[in-house]
Amino acid sequence: MNRGAATAEAYVPLYYAPGEAYQFDWSHEVVLISGVTVTVKVAHVRLCHSWMMFVRAYMREIEPLSAIGPRTMARGDGVRCP
C-alpha cells in the first residue's frame, strides 16, 4: 500500500477574534537623524484579526514595549487586551 499517494487541495481559513492574537518581530534599520547615521531597533506588530500593521522605532530594544501591545490592540481591532 502506498500511503500518502492521494492528494487533495484544501483551504482552511484562519479566524482570530478581535484582540485575540498578534504577530511581533524586531528589525534593525540604519537611519539618518539630524545628519547622524544611527541604527534603530524597529518593532513590527501585525494584528491577526484585521491584518493592521503598526511599526515603532526605538533607539534601544530595552525601551518599554508594554505600551505597544494594549494600545495597538485597542486602536486596531477595537478590543483592549489585558
Main attributes of the structure:
single chain; 82 residues; mainly beta; 3-stranded antiparallel sheet; 1 helix; 3 strands; disordered C terminus
Order of strands across the widest beta sheet? 1-2-3
General form: elongated
Give the uncertain stretches in residue-range form. Answer: 78-82
Helix content: 10-25%
- The total count of strands amounts to 3
CA(first)-CA(last) distance: 52 Å
> How many DSSP helices?
1
- Can you summarize the main beta sheet? 3 strands, antiparallel
Question: What portion of the residues fall into strands of 2 or more residues?
Answer: 35-45%
Order of helices and strands: EEEH
Mean pLDDT equals: 77
Describe the structure.
With 82 residues, the chain is mostly beta strands. The protein has a domain at 22-73. It is 11% helix and 37% strand. It has one helix spanning 68-76, and strands at residues 22-33, 36-47, 53-58. The protein has a three-stranded antiparallel beta sheet.
List the helices and strands and how they pair.
Layout: E1 22-33, E2 36-47, E3 53-58, H1 68-76
Antiparallel strand pairs: 1-2, 2-3
